[in-house]
Amino acid sequence: MNGTERISIAGLAATLAAGVPMFTVTQDRSYLFLGLALMAASVAIGAVIRRVGGGEITTRLAQVLPVLLLPWLVPALRNPWKLAGETIDFVQQAFAPMPYQEGFAVFTATMLWVVFLVVETLTNGLRSPGWTFPVLVMPYAVCALAIYTETNPFLFAFPAIGFIAVLATSVRNDALAALPEAQANLPHWRTGVTRAAATAGGLALVASVLLSVPIAERSANAANPSGSGAVLLGDPSLDLIRNVTAAADQKVISYTTTDSGGQYLRLAALPAFDDRGFHLTRTELIQLPLRDNPPRVVGATSVNTSVKVDNLASEYLPMPWVPTRAELADNWRYDPATMAVVAIGDNRRGASRNLEYTVTSQRVPDVENWLPAVADAGGANDNGMTLDLPDEISPAIRQLAEQVTAGSSTTGAKALALRDFLRSDAFTYSTTVTPGTTLQTLDDFLLGSRLGYCEQYAGGMAVMARMVGIPSRVVIGFLPGKKVTQHWEITTRNMHAWTELYFGDDIGWVLMDATPPAAVGGPTPSVSATARPSSASAEPTVRQPTAAPVEAPPVPLNPTSVETPAWILPSVAGGLAGLLLVGAGPLLLRRGLRWRRLAIRPDQQRMVEDAWAEVRAVAVDRGADWPKGSTRQVAAALAPELDERAARQLTDLAVLVERSRYSGEEVPAGELAMAVGIVTGAFERRWERPTAWVRRWWPRSLWPQRPSS
Fold it and tell me: In CATH, which of 3.10.620.30, 3.40.50.12370, 3.90.79.10, 3.30.43.10 is domain 231-537?
């Protein structure tokens, strides 16, 4: 292995190390395998091109060829525009650390591959390894600047060690290649590299600031530069399990309300559902006030709630459901589709901290009394989004929903039957499960282990409601909390998920919490609100008892709840194939050259020259020093090392080569092949070494050689 190949492999390892800090951006790890496959292929291509005498420009162009592997490794790339659109939508809606998404995984892996190509250009092309520092540190710098609360400073060690490995390899190569009189200049060279790295690092920092702007920010319980102990929220569902199980239960909100039962405080609604679970959609924000002269449900009461936010830094404002009036600053807007109140502006991530405001909302009679009379759910005027179900969802869940609601005559009664089923002893509340509402987690929750926490209860309720024709969405917010004298206090552990169901234009979205009340700290207040007056609620009715909870038939499930990308196995295989190509490529190249040199061809002179080149290559592969001089002089120098027959054949072959060169004499192909076979066989016997297997896999004849003087 020569110095160029050593530094290529060092660059590959350094780039993989530089990719580790991206763990703070994505939950996916498969991008490392795909990136490894691309980089290994580029290393192998570069080694082969250089061995056959290609220059650095040719090598660099050829190293881009692995991009052609991507459609094979990731079939979705065969429709790149569709995948790009899905990825852009995903990035706009998700918050770090983002779950697996095929397009983003490809983007991240390709970014690492490009980093490697730049490192390769700086080290082998421009001979400037010191400038690899800003390139290798870029992934960490982007994460540190965009997600400063979650990026562990110790992650800097990964790109730093990679950079040191590249520099150490380069210094070793230079030391091995330097003549004795040049050894004294190496310390000066290392000083230059250090200065270049420091200068380039400043440029990397500036570039990282620019690149970090579109990267999603993750919420955290960690400290915030503008205040200690803040709870940061991006997509609230991503922090749900962490806050519910937090070791330190920090008070984040206090409020007073005219509702004796307390208030659910709502942050955001997740109306879209696919194989990744329930998630946010694009939001249309309009200016306050919320609405003028809001309609009232017969029997509903108006509730006033005064909220004081403490160390909760969020772009969503905690609001009772359904809000009808709120006096807020100009930096707040609301989404008419979900009624989420969201901050805008540069400081929107922490806009809720230390905010005080008063909200007027509606409270209707307990759903137990009037919901069974609602005959039809109607449509939610959202193009069917809150009724959509992915094709991959298990038919057994639909069967379960139909069994549970079989004894219910109205849509409202079906909703209550589903809620009561989830609150029954058939399910067990547990936070020791995989978070999220993916198809796998909901399959396991509804049909398998039946273990879950509020997010699975809310997701299970929403999915089964859609299956019986009720539009639904999952909502993230806070439970009413604990009453302390005349006010209520909400802590991080009160973060909660529930479901909202739509019952037509006259009623609107109704809060429905399927989590067992005892599991979340005691009796759950009867809180429900509507967006429009309801004729169905004018006369409260008594709900008929629903059928006993229905047990679902046992369904065999895959216990693995982590989504495995379809291309992960081809990527691993591609990476291994690339590494194999790096290891076996020189051997394959050497054998190909031997086959070409010994092939019979019309050009007699070329055939003779190739035969002599093969004899030389075998000698060099075996560790022999190939002498300077004419073919006769070479034969005279090597013949004493061989047996009598081989020495004679080597001398005869040298004479044949000279005759071909100077007189154009035709040489019989059979005689030429016999001579080559005898001589090369003698070389292999004479210079057999204990490390012969190394020479077979990495033939020395492919290395740049200087003839002996």
Answer: 3.10.620.30
